[in-house]
Automatic annotation (TrEMBL):
Residues 1-22 are annotated as: Disordered. Gene3D superfamilies: Farnesyl Diphosphate Synthase (1.10.600.10). This is All-trans-phytoene synthase. GO terms for molecular function: geranylgeranyl diphosphate synthase activity; squalene synthase [NAD(P)H] activity. Keywords: Transferase. It comes from the Bacteria.
Amino acid sequence: MQPAASPSAASADPAAREAHDELVAEGRRSLAQHGSTFHLAHLLLGRRAAEDVELLYGFFRFVDDVVDEQPEAAARRDLARVRADLIARRSADPAVQGYLRFCERRPADPLVIQEFLAGVEQDLVPRPYESVDELLRYGYRVAGTVGLTMCALFEVKDRDALPFAVDLGVGMQLTNICRDVMEDARRGRVYLPAEWTGGALDPAQLAARAGDTECRARAAVERLLALADRYYRSADAGMVHLPARARAAVLTASRCYEAIGGKVLATPKNRLPERVHVGAAGKFVHLARAAGAAVRIALAGRGGREPRHLPGLHVALHGKPGADPLAG
């Protein structure tokens, strides 16, 4: 299969344009089915940026499914094929084709996507995370990298913006972990750091809500959500680097994700919920909150002061692409 055609070639060649539209449509279907929060947010973007979000989401979802829905040996084989396809810049997988199409349109860093693939691969062999730093490195790989890729999508050229993008991804991933504790436990996975749970938790005991296991997990969830809030607030400070429409879309996704954490905390003390959602009405409330935040950020940006990233947030990420270079 030949590499995806360039945007100009795609517009001139009806067959290339049709192939491009099919890739976008597949990503759009995946986004609508699995990513309702991101689906709402991406509607705020212009057509071209929205198409690129759809291509990206289709790829990220495809790679997640490779790991989550197959035996280990098959998943490793497929991940190796994805890596080879990215190097060769051609693929038989529509989702990978979509990502390659995106890379021809936007300045994506190939090191970032390799970090993402390495993070997803960690899920093939469930293991306890002993420390918060270990968990933050995992969060960087599977979600901070997505934030960095979105910077490429929005053509953010100021490298000072990158650590803030990482922070939003990490905050969202910590929220995901806290939302999915019980679901993950039933799949034999525990992402809560053992240093905050008094030792590694047994997934089977957690899934059965046995003994004090759930109580220990809930205490760690509360601490993780407080930590996630630090990353969200840092991400807010960096929103000034984004174009106005992108800022509104990213803030919408951020506020909806933060609300998930609030729903987790609203469950009875020492208990953990099943997977919680922010309903359609709630999403529009958070859309309004995001609009207000976008206005405040725009007004603050007129003062001409560049936001300063807190390097302490990236001590565990030292040396990673896009991480704060002052962290260490």
